[in-house]
Amino acid sequence: MTQRISKYQRFKMMNPVIQFLKFIYLSIKIMFVVAGGHGGTRKVN
């Protein structure tokens, strides 16, 4: 049982597609927070 869970977690960690989607989701979330916090006027590089 524990082996199956660790295997699944390792698969999730090593899966580049999931990492890529998580990265895009986080970037969009941060973008919205920054734009909303500054009224969308100031640009942050």
Which descriptors would you attach to this protein?
about 45 residues, mainly alpha
Describe the structure.
This protein is an all-alpha fold and 45 residues long. It has one domain (2-37). Helices cover 78% and strands 0% of the residues. The protein has 2 helices and no strands. The protein has helices at residues 2-14, 16-37. 0% of the residues are buried.
What is the secondary structure topology, with strand pairs?
Blueprint: H1 2-14, H2 16-37
Radius of gyration: 17 Å
Order of helices and strands: HH
Low-pLDDT windows of residues = none
- Total number of distinct structural domains: 1
Largest sheet: none
Give the helix tally: 2
SSE-based structural type: mainly alpha
Termini separation comes to 46 Å
User: What is the molecular shape?
Assistant: elongated
Q: What proportion of the residues is helical, as a percent range? A: over 70%
Total count of strands? 0
Average of the residue pLDDT scores: 79
- Beta-strand content bin: under 5%
Briefly characterize the structure:
With 45 residues, this protein is mainly alpha-helical. It contains 2 helices and no strands.
